[in-house]
Specification:
Layout: H1 4-18, E1 27-33, H2 34-40, H3 45-48, E2 57-61, H4 71-76, E3 86-95, H5 108-117, E4 122-131, E5 136-142, E6 149-152, H6 157-166
Antiparallel strand pairs: 1-2, 1-3, 3-4, 4-5, 5-6
Length: about 170
């Protein structure tokens, strides 16, 4: 079952990150219940507004995420306090249409370089969110067609699983 609050938070982060354009580093956000955030920091009420509903989630960007580590290694070193109910990760990636995948080298570094230099490569922004309950949702926007937003629970299963592991107690 998809949490409406999770889907709304993922869409909000995608819009927020999108306002800064393309060619951004990976960005990580903690998810906390908005009511609890306002209780702990009432001075944020002006930024959040009074329109929020019970059960809404607020995202808090983690400014020092990544620090030059490979993405999955950075995630493997991450742990959240119990007040964080979920997280969202935004990454940009290049990919090839499926008809070109068979031509890629087996070595991951060589394959990455081949994709980045291929004339048919596409670029996308993937925003993936998970909750401690196991719920997940992701959206993707392809750079060449920014008006279309793809979404779904299983859009990025490997990334979702890695994010869920950061929430294990």
């Amino acid at each position: 079952m998809l949490s409406d609050a999770l889907a709304a938070a993922v869409l909000e982060v995608e819009r927020h990150v999108g306002r800064s354009g393309w060619d951004q580093p990976s960005r990580l956000f903690a998810l906390v219940p908005t009511d609890e955030l306002l209780e702990a920091a009432p001075e944020l009420a002006g930024q959040i507004g009074s329109e929020h509903l019970e059960g809404d989630l607020s995202s808090i960007e983690q400014e020092d995420f990544h620090n030059g580590l490979p993405l999955f290694e950075a995630l493997a070193h991450l742990a959240w306090p119990p007040t964080v109910v979920g997280c969202i990760l935004c990454v940009e990636r290049a990919f090839l249409p499926s008809q070109y995948e068979a031509d890629l080298p087996d070595d991951p570094d060589d394959a990455g370089e081949a994709v980045s230099n291929h004339p048919q490569r596409q670029e996308l922004r993937l925003v993936t969110g998970v909750l401690r309950t196991g719920e997940r949702h992701a959206v993707a926007r392809v750079r060449s067609d920014p008006s279309e937003l793809l979404g779904g629970e299983n859009l990025a299963p490997g990334l979702s699983t890695a994010l869920l592991a950061t929430l294990d107690d």
